[in-house]
Amino acid sequence: VWAAKAWREGDPGGTRAGRRPRAGSVPTGFLDVDVTSAPLALECLYTPWAPGTDSDGAPTPQDCPRVFSAGLDLTEMCGRNPAHYAEYWKAVQELWLRTYLSSLVLVAAINGACPAGGCIIALACDCRVLADNPKYHIGLNETLLGITAPFWFKDAYVNTIGHRASEQALQLGYLFPPSEALQVGLVDQVVPEDQVLSTALSEMARWLAVPDHARQLTKNMMRKATADRLLRQRDADIQNFVSFICRDSIQKSLQVYLEKLRQRKG
Ligand SMILES: CCCC/C=C/CC(=O)SCCNC(=O)CCNC(=O)[C@H](O)C(C)(C)COP(=O)(O)OP(=O)(O)OC[C@H]1O[C@@H](n2cnc3c(N)ncnc32)[C@H](O)[C@@H]1OP(=O)(O)O
């Protein structure tokens, strides 16, 4: 995900949020939300799932091949205490609000799997370009983990693919392969893998060609109601999350899911 201003200024680096080292494992691009970086303006936040830059300042693919983002870090939602869950969820809200409401042009170059939290960040961008690889599924699969997508995930889904498609996909926890993601409007372009970055840059140029003030005001007009819905009930949403995630049955579901992921490896 690139922030246009940073890109324009040739400094997509800015402040880089940390990636938690995972010794001996394939590094997976979790949304490892660092609560200390959440207060940073998105404009200077270079997210851990974003591509880096080479010596010429051109974007390079992320250091975790085949994964755009594995979504929220499930280990942050398992076996912790209520205060931890509350702080974590507040940071997740903050990340989404800053991304969704950013006045910058944001283009998601999705060059890997993009479930749940990964999908929600991609949805917060202005445009999504997905690599044409049948393994790169995108969608909100929360029900398959035994959890429920929060209302603001659902709102972003409905805004993008409509009510009926969202209702079906959310209940099934469906992850769309590229061709279906394009068909339903979840992504804007599907291109060969080696053209994802160049296509995203072309898209960026297209969006930046529009007078900035007019584009920004229009973006805000289109997104304000959805963001306000969360802003009005942030604390209640945190409380809901904490009480939901603390349930024994939910903890059990998440642990079983994580264990399956670990066993599936290799
Ligand atoms: C009311 C509550 C609402 C809460 C909302 C939550 C939204 C979310 O985002 S929930 C998270 C949903 N994410 C997923 O379901 C993705 C699960 N992961 C995968 O499907 C695959 O890992 C992958 C397709 C992303 C990548 O596959 P790949 O074969 O490259 O890597 P793996 O061998 O599967 O994984 C490596 C390593 O990472 C662990 N892991 C994977 N995803 C997560 C995760 N989201 N959180 C924590 N850990 C994760 C996986 O278990 C492996 O760990 P080990 O190396 O320790 O074995």
Automatic annotation (TrEMBL):
Key enzyme of fatty acid beta-oxidation. Able to isomerize both 3-cis (3Z) and 3-trans (3E) double bonds into the 2-trans (2E) form in a range of enoyl-CoA species, with a preference for (3Z)-enoyl-CoAs over (3E)-enoyl-CoAs. The catalytic efficiency of this enzyme is not affected by the fatty acyl chain length. This is Enoyl-CoA delta isomerase 1, mitochondrial. Pathway: Lipid metabolism; fatty acid beta-oxidation. Residues 1-23 are annotated as: Disordered. GO terms for cellular component: mitochondrial matrix. The keyword Acetylation applies. The lineage of its organism: Eukaryota, Metazoa, Chordata, Craniata, Vertebrata. One of its GO terms (biological process) is fatty acid beta-oxidation. InterPro entries: ClpP/crotonase-like_dom_sf (IPR029045), Enoyl-CoA_hydra/iso (IPR001753). It is found in: Mitochondrion matrix. PANTHER family: ENOYL-COA DELTA ISOMERASE 1, MITOCHONDRIAL, ENOYL-COA HYDRATASE-RELATED. Gene3D superfamilies: 2-enoyl-CoA Hydratase, Chain A, domain 1, 6.10.250.170. Its EC number is 5.3.3.8. It comes from Capra hircus (Goat). It catalyses: (2E)-tetradecenoyl-CoA = (3Z)-tetradecenoyl-CoA; a (3E)-enoyl-CoA = a 4-saturated (2E)-enoyl-CoA; (3Z)-decenoyl-CoA = (2E)-decenoyl-CoA; (3Z)-octenoyl-CoA = (2E)-octenoyl-CoA.
